[in-house]
Amino acid sequence: MERSNGSSSHGSLYFGQLGTFPVVPGTESIYNLTADGSVKLVASGLTAVLGVAFDRQGRLYALETDTVAGFPGPAAVGKGEIVRVNHDGTKTTIATGRTFLRYDFGPDGILYVSNFGHAFPPCAGQVVVINAYGTGCNAQNDNSSTGTESSSSSPIFSTSEAKNET
Asked: Helix (H, G, I), strand (E, B), or coil: what is residue 68?
């Protein structure tokens, strides 16, 4: 079983499954490894999970790098999703249409996401800002059930700009 990076919350480690290839949508899960060593299923029905994170309200998010059946390739480019796993087990899609590789919440509560980190084409990588709360910085509306994201044509840093930051 392939495992993605994890996140800790309340003394536990949460981790998701990347899975094997070819990708089979909906077959991966997120687990909780507790301090006493037990492993509990937290969420299922996910695809190619590369990471998990928690927002300031303690809600769990999953980064699905690819949601297309088959082997990674051109058909999978731009098919990633970030979903929030709600307390009742349902999932809310926060962002789609990207090739996500890594993400985390900043101290400002905003979600920072690596997009096109493998560079399609070279120097095309971006850091995308997503407001998972739907309000405040970069928000388009006040809808707390869905996220909003900054314009894809003007990311905070492109890979070429980030190289020059020290």
From this structure: coil
- Residue pair 80/67 in contact by the 8 Å Cβ criterion: yes
Q: How far apart are alpha carbons 126 and 122 in whole angstroms?
A: 11
pLDDT, tens digit only, all 166 positions of the chain: 344 455 656 678 999 999 999 999 999 999 999 989 999 999 999 999 989 999 888 899 999 988 999 998 888 888 889 999 998 989 999 888 877 777 888 888 888 888 776 656 677 777 778 877 654 433 333 233 334 444 333 333 333 333 333 3
Could you tell me which of 86, 87, 15, 80 has the C-alpha nearest to residue 53?
15
Closest CA to 9 of 50, 39, 53, 43: 53
- Domain enclosing residue 101, as ranges: 3-163
Strands 28-33 and 100-105: unpaired
How many structural domains are present in the chain?
A: 1
Question: How far apart (Å, rounded) are the C-alpha atoms in residues 43 and 116?
Answer: 26
Q: Are 134 and 143 in contact (CB under 8 A)?
A: yes
The number of residues making up the chain comes to: 166
